[in-house]
Fold GDNF family receptor alpha 4a.
Amino acid sequence: STSLQKHKILPRLFVLFQVKNVLFLVKISGDTCSSDDTCSPRLRTLRQCVAGDGSVKLGPGARNQCENAMTALLSTPLHGCQCKRGMKKEKNCLSIYWSLHQSVLHGLNFESLNKREKDERRSGCILCLLLLPESEVTTVNRCLDAAKACNIDETCQKLRTEYVSACIQPSARSGPCNRPKCNKALRKFFDRVPPDYTHELLFCPCTDTACAERRRQTIVPACSYEDKDKPNCLAQLRVCRADYVCRSRWAQFQYDCQPSEKTASGCKQENYGACLLAYTGLIGSTITPNYLDNSTSNVGPWCSCAASGNHREQCNDFLAFFHDNVCLIPPTPFDCGDKHHSREHLTPKI
């Protein structure tokens, strides 16, 4: 259908990947390979294979060299290496991961083993509270309550204070704020603080403008999100794909929030917890999503499809993955009480 075609924007490489969840567990370090006389040169060769015109740099027989390096590395512990979201050396770990998986052989599985069921189940509890009858929530400001809850938790309060401070501090070079520093602090907050707090802050239900505006301001959009002009979305996506971390977060979001006509919910994975975690994983990147206004469902990156030329449809498809994505629609209160429902791990949606 036309609706589904809108969402078939996965790069050819990503289509071959089977992304299982938002959190990766690291099993080994690239340091082991780097210090090994046999493994190290093979990894360097493979990195050349995936770096732009790498096959040209390798000279005659480049494809064979790439295939031989890949085959050899598949028999080493590197084949099973995985990376934890927010880990200290995440970017370095992902550089090794993508070297192995973005090869001329086109596509080993992009998998991770930890389903983060604990976080998803806890988020499901939050959802049931957020979906109480309206008469039970109109007397309170859930976004204000979320802020208070965060202030009580030491980690949440500390990291929230850090990112707010980083995002409002003027910079001599950058002007009103230091966006890179702000985004780094935001990534740290959403990667390290439990979803009990982050999801409450970002997806608290609102029935009035003041509450909705507080929710929209959660990520300090004046620094982390908005700009004088809106850049082209495809240009922003290219920048994202050039970064190992952003590329991985975008692939994760596409997998976990992929629409489908074959499921009752309209979402292929039917895992709202994983989709929400994948969404928050994009915050602090070049394609950071946020509320475009004070409505609950209107979200997307700060970009436009102007000047897209012949790629206008592709650009619109990118935005539609946010604007019209059924996976970002909240489930009903009925689902909370049904433990055998297909949406076992529920979290509030945007």
Notes: The chain has 19 helices and two strands. The longest strand covers residues 289-291. Residues 328 and 350 are 6 Å apart (CA to CA).
